[in-house]
Amino acid sequence: MLHFAQEDVDDAELERLRGLYGSFTDAVRDLVDATIRTEVDEDTLRAVQGEIEAATARLRTKQLDGPYGVRVTPTGKSMAWGNAAVGLRNAAAPPMVINHDGKGSSWAQVDLGAAYEGPPGLVHGGVAALLLDHILGETGSFGRRTNLTGTIEIKFLRATPLGRLRVEARIDRDEQYKTFVVGSISDAEGVTVEARGVFIVPKWARGKGNLWGSEQ
Amino acid sequence: MLHFAQEDVDDAELERLRGLYGSFTDAVRDLVDATIRTEVDEDTLRAVQGEIEAATARLRTKQLDGPYGVRVTPTGKSMAWGNAAVGLRNAAAPPMVINHDGKGSSWAQVDLGAAYEGPPGLVHGGVAALLLDHILGETGSFGRRTNLTGTIEIKFLRATPLGRLRVEARIDRDEQYKTFVVGSISDAEGVTVEARGVFIVPKWARGKGNLWGSEQ
C-alpha cells in the first residue's frame, strides 16, 4: 500500500504556498530552457555554474530526505507537487494543468519548449506518452477511485510540433476494477497522437475513493 | 523533411564541449531536485529565486532563437543535446546514456530521483514510457536508419521504485520500412515494465542511413 500523506493546511494557506512555490519553480524551469539554448562563452558559463551550485546548497540546508510524495489537504485537495507531469514544484514537468468536467472528460493546454524536443523542432514521442499516460490516469481516477496504469497504447498519426498543444482524455468504460480511458494530443491542425489505456484499482485502494485528492 | 544540422567540431573538441556542458547541466539538474525537496523559509526561497533569475538572464544574453535541434559532427557523432530523454544539455532529462552492442540490442542504467515521481516513491508511468519510447526508437535506428515512433504499447507488470534501474531494448524484426522493437525496465528484483513498438522510416529518410548520427 502506498502512503498518501496528510498535509495540514487550509485552502487559503494552500493558495499562498501555490503562489510561492509556483513562482520559484517557474524560475527554475526558465533556467532549464536557458541551459539548453545558451551560447555564452565558457568563462560566463563557469561563473553562472558556481552561482547555481551555491543556490542549490542554500536550498539543501533544510530539505526532505527523499522525494516529495503525494500529500492531501484536510479539504481533499491534492498536493502531488513533485509529480513528473503535473508537479507544481517540479521544474522538469511542463507542467500540465488539467481541467475536469466532472463527467469523465478532461483537457489541458500545454506549451512545450526546448526541453521537450525529440526530433528537430518536434515533441519527443516519449513526452507525448508521458502527458497522455498522466491525463488518462487522472481522468480515470478523478473524483472516483485510485488507479495505476495497467497498459497504455500510443499511436502517432503524424509529427507533433513544439509549441502550444491540447491534451485531452475521456473515460470509455469501467469493468469492475479496470477503467478504459482514451485520449489524444492535438495541434492547431488537429489530432497528432492518440492513446488508449487500461487503469487498475490496486487491491489496497479498493472501496477507498480517490486517495490522490480532488485537485492538483 | 526534418533538418539535421552539421556541427563542425572534431572529436577532441566534442569531448571538451561534453565536459563543459555536461557539468553545467548536472548543476541545473541538482537544482531541479533541490527545488522539489527544499524546506527553507520563504525569505531564503525568495532570495535564491532572485539569484536564479539573474543567472538565467546572463545565460540569455546570447542564445539560440529556438530549440537545440539535432546536430551531427563530421565524424558522424550525434549531438541531440536538447533531447528530452538523453540530452546532455537538458536538465529535465535523467539523462539516459545508452550502450549499443552493434547487433540490435542496447541497455542503459538510469538513476531516477524526486523529479521522476508519480505515485508516492514510485516512478511515474509516463516517465517509464518516455525512457522506453526513446531506447526502443534509438535501438531500431542505431547505425541503420532514421526511425520515428509509429505505435508503442507499454505494459506495467508491477510498480517501479525510484532509484537505480536498468532499461533495455532489442530489435525483434524488420518489415521493409518498419522495425519492431521490444524492451523493458527492471529493478533489482526483475522486470517491472515491458514495451513493444513499431518504428517507421519516413519517406524523406529512406536510403539515407541514420541521420541522427552514431552516438549521443
List keywords for this structure.
216 residues, 3 helices, globular, 6-stranded antiparallel sheet, homodimer, 3-stranded mixed sheet, alpha+beta, 29% helix, 9 strands
Write the layout of secondary structure elements.
The structure is a homodimer of 216-residue chains.
Chain A: E1 4-6, H1 11-37, H2 42-59, E2 70-72, E3 78-79, E4 99-100, E5 105-112, H3 125-141, E6 148-156, E7 163-175, E8 178-187, E9 190-200
Parallel strand pairs in A: 1-2
Antiparallel strand pairs in A: 2-3, 4-5, 5-7, 6-9, 7-8, 8-9
- Structure summary, number of beta strands of chain A: 9
Cα radius of gyration of chain A in angstroms: 19 Å
β content of chain A, as a range?
25-35%
Quaternary status: homodimer
Task: State the helix count of chain A.
Answer: 3
Largest interface: A-B, 87 and 87 residues
Derived structural class of chain A: alpha+beta
Percentage of residues assigned to helices of chain A:
25-40%
Distance between the termini of chain A: 21 Å
Order of helices and strands of chain A: EHHEEEEHEEEE
Residue windows where pLDDT falls under 50 for at least 5 positions of chain A = none
Give the strand order, joined by hyphens, for the main sheet of chain A: 4-5-7-8-9-6
The general outline of chain A is globular
**Mean of residue pLDDT values of chain A:** 95
The main β sheet of chain A shows up as:
6 strands, antiparallel
